[in-house]
Amino acid sequence: MAQVASLTLLHNDDARPIIEAILADNPGVRVLDMPGCVKLDRDMELVVNRASVEERLGRTWDPQEIHLVLVSMAGNLDEDDDRFLVGWKH
């Protein structure tokens, strides 16, 4: 059984482009829409790509900005200037 990587983000206008980018870039992501937050789960890893978020925002975006809307996460964090990845090593 695969381990589940998870991101829970606030459900607001600032998080919406990030959520849309995650859904576009992570096939098979499962979404739990709750009052005030959105939980995104995927087997093994979830990635947030800077370019995908920028495309939706229409401006530059630093992956560190995710911390402004991040509620919780499950998995090991690996981040750089181009992406924010939460996952489990195979």
Tell me what you see in this structure.
With about 90 residues, this protein is of the alpha+beta class. It has one domain: Phenol Hydroxylase P2 Protein. The protein is about 20% helix and about 40% strand. The chain has helices at about 15-25, 50-55; strands spanning about 5-10, 30-35, 35-45, 45-50, 70-75, 75-80, 85. The strands form 2 sheets. Strands 2-3-1-5 form a 4-stranded antiparallel beta sheet, with no helix packed on it. The chain has a 3-stranded antiparallel beta sheet with strand order 4-7-6. Strand 2 and strand 3 form a beta hairpin. Helix 1 packs across helix 2 (about 50-55). The protein is globular and about 40 Å long. The N and C termini lie close together (about 10 Å).
Descriptive keywords:
single chain, 90 residues, alpha+beta, Phenol Hydroxylase P2 Protein, three-stranded antiparallel beta sheet, 7 strands, globular
Give a topology summary.
Blueprint (H helix, E strand, L loop, with lengths): L3 E7 L5 H10 L4 E5 L2 E7 L1 E5 H8 L12 E5 L1 E4 L3 E5 L3
Antiparallel strand pairs: 1-3, 1-5, 2-3, 4-7, 6-7
Helix pairs in contact: 1-2
